[in-house]
Fold this sequence. Notes:
The radius of gyration is 17 Å and the shape is globular. It is α/β, with parallel strands linked by helices.
Amino acid sequence: MLKYKCLVLDHDDTVVQSMKTLSYPFFCIELEQFRPGAAMSFEEYVLECHRVGFADMCRQRFFFTDEELKLEHRQWMDYILQNIPAPYPGIERIIHQQKAAGGLICVVSHSHIDNITRDYAEHFGIQPDGIYGWELAPHQRKPNLWPLEDIMQRFNLTAEEILVIDDMKLACMMAAPLGVKVCYAGWSGMGVQSLHDEMMQLCDLSFETTDAMYRYLFEE
């Protein structure tokens, strides 16, 4: 019997390894283009994305306009088409076992649907049952409640039948008002202790490895 009928997975830095190897290096290039001379350390980048999300970080810290954000996003989409992030070791086993046992996999992420479907096809040979990505209107994206509300309605699920797995607190902001549990993907390994400590406190569950997550979901 499945512990949760639906796993709601974040994508970047929960399923695939992207922040250190792709998104932060790319952001440094973009920052030099849009705000020459400005700089941001990796730790600052991680903490601000954790606090408010990427787009609001750009707006609040560097005063990006909506047009600049649209251009940045187009350039990111071109870049990510040529650079496929690797999955975290062991995450494939979780995804395949959830599906094999008759469960659902949904993705709620700030990645675009094109990136998510490409990565799932490339790494896992399947597609999620539902994807809620950056292509949605701003009021429908995480941390707004709409993705989880739609999943619950679409698949006739209660809050107790869903587990959100994420590495950032925007997931908690989305899930807590609906009574949905959140698991901290501690294997993301961003190396920022204050973020790690905060997520350990905020989330209902936390696991340092995908193997520990697997055992909790399918063996206990």
